[in-house]
Every structure is written in C-alpha cells, then in structure tokens.
Amino acid sequence: MAAISSSMKNNEVLPGVHRPTMRVDLFKAAIKGNNKVLIRHLGLPPEAPTEIQVTIETSDPVSQQVVAEYQDAQYEIQSATRFGDTLLHLLITNRHNVLVLKVFAKDMSLLKAHNNKLDTPLHCAAMVGNYEVIGELIRLAPSVVSDVLKETNENGDTALHVAASNNHEGVVRELMKLNTEAAHKENKQGFSPLYIATVEGYTYVVETMLKLDGTLACTQFSDGTFPVHVAARMGYRDLVKHFLEEYPDDAMWLDCCGKNLFHVAAEQDNEELSTKVFTILH
Fold first, then answer.
1. Cβ distance 13 to 109 under 8 Å?
2. Which of 55, 175, 219, 267 is the most buried (most CB within 10 A)?
3. Which UniProt key words apply to this protein (predicted)?
C-alpha cells in the first residue's frame, strides 16, 4: 500500500475552529470501545502501534484511491460532539487505551484538541487518573505530550493541575518525569499544582512532586507563603513532618508577613506541631 504524506498527518484543527459533527455510530463506538466500527470507518491499524512512523509522500498513481480513503477517514477522525469532545477525548475518558494509541498514531494533532471547556484529551486522562495511557503516549511521542502539557483549559489549569486536584499520584508522576517545569505553572487563580495538592493534603502527590523536583520545596507561592507554611496552616502534620525531615531549612523561610514556620504553627494552636518545629529551629 502506498504511504500517506506526513503533511496530511499534521492536519491540525486549532482551538475555536469548527469541527465536523461526530456521527452517532462513531460516538457510541468510542464510548463502548467498539474496535471493529472504528477500524472500519477510520482505517485504524488492527494492533496498537509500538512506535510512531513518519511516512513520505508518493506520486504513485495507484495511491490516489488510498489518499481519497485517507481523506474520508481524516474527516471523521477530526469530528467532535456538541461539547467539543473528539474521539480521543472520549476514548481516553473511558479508558479504551489500545484504541487511544491507534487514533493517536493516525492523527497526533488530536491530542492538542480543545473541547468547549478547553480541556485537551490529556486533561481528560488526568481527570480520570489514566496514567497508563499517558505513559504510553509519552513513550510514543514525548515531545508532542510535552507540548500539550503546556495547554490550559478555561480555568487556566494544565493537565498537571487537574491531576493534582484529583489526587492522581500516578498521573502526576508520569507528567513530571516528562517535564518538571509544569509543576511551577500557576492557573488563573494563581495556584500551582503543588499548592493545590498541599492545600488538599494529598501527601503522596506532594511527596512525588518533591521527589522529582526538590526545588519546589523552597518555591514561594503567589500568596507569599511557602509549601511548608501552607501545610502547617491546614493542620497537615504528616506533610509538615515530611517537609521538615527532607528539607529542614524550610523551617527558616519567612512568608510575606515575616513569619516562619514556628509562627505559623503557633497560630494553629497545635502543641504537637509547634513542639516539632521548635525542636528543629533550636
């Protein structure tokens, strides 16, 4: 079979651009993970890809029918629901991961597609905790996933914000192994993924983030506090203990009001926490 031009694979539909309306049978197939229907209409490979191959153009006359079939399939693969969800949004949300990889190999630009809430499929994976498919997508095309990780939804959240908000440690781990800089990005409220996880008391998420980027422990948040201050104000003793054991210098950091961790702990009327901090400070 003649190869398809790589330029056709980059037929990207930008955010805000009208997409074809998704057919009902394709929508149902994406929800249920109907492999046969999607293979028939989209020309997907029978097996999940092990690598992304870049093909070259051909002038072979025999390929014209192949190109026409590809264009028909490409039209369908670019379709979306009335909520703006593409096939990749639906497949990832419903954890049909083998089909996700097939569709991604067919058109990598779909990973950058935004729905009506400006969520990309990567946001959807983070929302449901689908770390397995994120790991596979990173393995197949790390640069593509890294680019999509910079994309934000209507709240200014990246996929890492979403993962941190939903206590999905596995997703946080996969995304931060790819790009630790994402952990420093703030959303429209001025919250970073670490700030969100710390406020919520998601100990494993915080520990994973700090393990992959220790500089986060001494990063000042937009409200003038440091992570250990936030943990103390929220009364999370386990988190404070982790900060002090792994990053004892954190106890000396001053917030925007000139308060260190001991001051913050004392304000919480928590004798155990205050004693722990006092011991380290002295």
1. yes
2. 175
3. ANK repeat
Q: Which residues are CB-contacts of 53 (< 8 A; sequence separation ≥ 6)?
A: none
Contacts of 170 (CB under 8 A, 6+ apart): 129, 131
- The DSSP bridge partners found for residue 80 are 21, 86
pLDDT, tens digit, 9 for 90 and up, residues 113-134: 999 999 999 999 999 999 999 9
pTM for this predicted structure: 0.83
Q: Let me know: does 205 contact 164? Beta carbons within 8 Å.
A: yes
Q: Encoding tokens for residue 110?
A: 């779909």
Kindly calculate the radius of gyration of the chain based on its CA atoms and give it in whole angstroms.
23
Range with the lowest mean pLDDT among 8-22, 103-117, 213-227, 264-278?
A: 8-22
Task: Spell out the domain ranges in the chain.
Answer: 1-116
